[in-house]
Design a protein that fits this description.
By secondary structure, the protein is an all-alpha fold. It has helices at residues 5-9, 24-28.
Protein backbone atom coordinates (compact mmCIF):
# COMPACT_ATOMS: atom_id res chain seq x y z
CA UNK A 1 0.00 0.00 0.00
CA UNK A 2 3.08 2.24 -0.04
CA UNK A 3 2.97 2.78 3.71
CA UNK A 4 6.32 3.50 5.35
CA UNK A 5 5.82 1.21 8.34
CA UNK A 6 9.20 1.96 9.95
CA UNK A 7 8.64 5.69 9.77
CA UNK A 8 5.07 5.47 11.06
CA UNK A 9 6.16 3.35 14.01
CA UNK A 10 8.32 6.22 15.25
CA UNK A 11 4.98 7.90 16.02
CA UNK A 12 3.89 4.82 17.98
CA UNK A 13 1.25 3.45 15.68
CA UNK A 14 0.19 3.09 12.07
CA UNK A 15 -2.99 4.96 11.43
CA UNK A 16 -2.76 5.33 7.68
CA UNK A 17 -6.10 5.30 5.87
CA UNK A 18 -4.48 3.24 3.11
CA UNK A 19 -3.76 0.36 5.54
CA UNK A 20 -5.98 -2.58 4.66
CA UNK A 21 -4.93 -4.56 7.77
CA UNK A 22 -3.58 -7.39 5.67
CA UNK A 23 -1.06 -8.36 8.36
CA UNK A 24 1.97 -8.54 6.08
CA UNK A 25 3.98 -6.19 8.25
CA UNK A 26 3.14 -7.97 11.51
CA UNK A 27 4.15 -11.30 10.01
CA UNK A 28 7.37 -9.88 8.61
CA UNK A 29 8.60 -8.22 11.79
CA UNK A 30 11.27 -10.54 13.23
CA UNK A 31 11.32 -8.73 16.57
CA UNK A 32 7.58 -8.98 17.07
CA UNK A 33 7.08 -5.30 17.78
CA UNK A 34 4.07 -5.03 15.50
CA UNK A 35 0.62 -6.20 16.45
CA UNK A 36 -2.95 -5.39 15.59
CA UNK A 37 -5.14 -3.73 18.10
CA UNK A 38 -8.00 -1.39 18.65
CA UNK A 39 -8.07 1.77 20.62
CA UNK A 40 -10.74 3.95 22.10
CA UNK A 41 -11.32 7.19 20.20
S1 LIG B 1 -1.25 -4.25 7.66
FE1 LIG B 1 -0.74 -4.47 5.48
S2 LIG B 1 -1.42 -2.56 4.51
FE2 LIG B 1 -1.32 -2.18 6.72
S3 LIG B 1 0.72 -1.34 7.06
FE3 LIG B 1 0.86 -3.56 7.39
S4 LIG B 1 1.51 -4.39 5.42
FE4 LIG B 1 0.74 -2.30 5.04
Amino acid sequence: MGINVSEDLKKGSIEDPDCIMCGECTGACKKGVLRFGTRKI
